[in-house]
Design goal:
Blueprint (H helix, E strand, L loop, with lengths): L2 H9 L2 H10 L6 H5 L6 H13 L3 E3 L8 E3 L5 H36 L1
Antiparallel strand pairs: 1-2
Amino acid sequence: MNRLDAAFSALADPTRRAILARLALGETTVMELARPFEMTQPAVSRHLKVLEEAGLITRRIEGTKRPCRLAPGALEEIDKWLAMLRRALEANYDRLDQLLAEMEASKEDGQT
């Protein structure tokens, strides 16, 4: 699975999206991440493993703690893909606008 597929697969889960939203505020530990969820620390750790394998977060060892943070450039590939889609949609809308303008002009020419 390529990195983009892995990222979208990881983001498909609402718990993982919530974890990323929390990490957007700054680095935190696994235990702090587990607090708002009704799940065990090992369950949160499994979610973190998926996010880490997708390249969305990084973890480090600090004594007994395992602080997590968003990976640098984690969303760049997703952002590039979405930008490509935005450009394609804008081009489609531009063509539609042009077609509608031509249809309107043709309609006005037929009425005079």
